[in-house]
Write a sequence for this structure.
């Protein structure tokens, strides 16, 4: 049981690859045509790829909660887990952002660019401070930031797949759902950038204090 949290974190990394490949398959018309040439209904191929990407992402996102919770519950927190967990989070978010961008979502491409810029910038700050023995403690808002990012990306994956869910073909309803998904996405961007600014100010203060 003591290795279960790290196993869940590793599973998140594996699922990220599965999600990205499924989204790449959805964006690849030659792949769909290749399947059709072998007697496979293109609709079945696209449906399978979509649900693989969506549910793979959802399961991976859920493991983000359970690996940390189990580590604390079982009192098996480890250095390996502390290193892998944030890496797995960033890889999952980056994989979903790139996958959605490949599928043609300029909105996610723009928002995702801002999110990834913040993530890389904070990582660079941590690496700069580490040799000086300085740390940037994770804030409560930063923890919720990751959850908000995952919810926003799941919404961005859900709405474009409206037809796969056999939901009412009401374009007004689809438009409202897309607007709600975009609001959540840009809220995630705002919180992400805000926490990045907080870390920047904390780093500046720590460097002055040293």
């Amino acid at each position: 049981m003591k290795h279960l949290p790290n196993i869940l974190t590793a599973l998140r990394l594996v699922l990220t690859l599965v999600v990205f490949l499924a989204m790449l398959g959805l964006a690849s018309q030659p792949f769909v045509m290749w399947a059709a040439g072998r007697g496979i209904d293109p609709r079945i191929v696209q449906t399978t790829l979509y649900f693989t990407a969506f549910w793979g992402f959802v399961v991976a996102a859920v493991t983000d909660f359970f690996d940390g919770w189990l580590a604390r519950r079982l009192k098996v927190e480890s250095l390996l887990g502390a290193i892998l967990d944030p890496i797995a989070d960033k890889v999952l978010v980056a994989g979903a952002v790139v996958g959605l961008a490949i599928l043609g979502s300029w909105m996610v491409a723009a928002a995702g660019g801002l999110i990834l810029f913040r993530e890389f910038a904070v990582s660079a700050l941590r690496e700069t401070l580490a040799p000086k023995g300085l740390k940037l403690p994770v804030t409560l808002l930063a923890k919720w930031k990751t959850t908000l990012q995952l919810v926003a990306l799941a919404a961005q994956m859900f709405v474009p797949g409206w037809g796969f869910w056999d939901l009412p073909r009401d374009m007004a309803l689809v438009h409202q759902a897309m607007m709600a998904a975009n609001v959540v996405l840009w809220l995630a961007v705002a919180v992400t950038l805000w926490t990045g600014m907080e870390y920047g100010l904390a780093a500046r203060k720590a460097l002055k204090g040293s």
In short: The chain has a mean pLDDT of 86. Residues 8 and 67 are 6 Å apart (CA to CA). Residues 106-210 form one domain. The chain has two domains: 1-104, 106-210.
